[in-house]
Design a protein that fits this description.
OB fold (Dihydrolipoamide Acetyltransferase, E2P); two-stranded antiparallel ribbon; alpha+beta
Length: 168
């Protein structure tokens, strides 16, 4: 027991960031692609990371934007304008060169080869959750990656109730 306490004390005293982040994998932001995808330098390679549990509007007119327009009854221009706002919001939180920490869930990659991850900022906030809380993303739960769905639903309700982001 004494050894465990000593190990925890060493970690607390030597870890320059919140202790939780010391257990996660380090990456550096390379580019913000859109509201729910970023590129990072991870294990020596530039990789695309799709943020787990969130969905933002498309920022470019494409097949998905057209599908979303048909489903929602909104036009593609409005959807892509919202997507650009979501991207700008993400850029206000994280920027190229920022050190971030990634956490994986059950499924590590999507069908496009992107890493699926929860991304934490240097201060310990989870980027995925912050985008939802800011009102610029909806919750999108895709099993088996469901670890934080309840946190995300709570943040979504908070954003709507407080009229943040798209809910203004």
């Amino acid at each position: 027991m004494l050894i465990l306490i000593q190990v925890v004390m060493v970690l607390l005293l030597t870890c320059p960031i919140p202790l939780l982040l010391c257990a996660l994998e380090n990456a550096t932001v390379v580019r913000i692609v859109d509201g729910d995808t970023i590129n990072v330098r991870y294990q020596g390679q530039d990789v695309s990371v799709r943020l787990i549990g969130i969905d933002t509007p498309e920022s470019r007119a494409n097949k998905k934007a057209n599908k979303d327009a048909m489903r929602s009854g909104q036009d593609v221009k409005k959807i892509t304008a919202m997507g650009k706002k979501a991207t700008a919001y993400v850029k206000s939180i994280v920027a190229p060169g920022d050190n971030v920490f990634i956490e994986f869930d059950v499924q590590k990659q999507d069908r496009y080869g992107r890493l699926l991850a929860y991304v934490y900022l240097a201060g310990g906030q989870m980027l995925n959750e912050e985008i939802i809380r800011g009102g610029y993303a909806s919750v999108m739960t895709v099993p088996p990656n469901v670890m934080y769905q309840h946190r995300f639903i709570k943040a979504y309700k908070e954003a709507r109730e407080n009229r943040r982001g798209f809910w203004e």
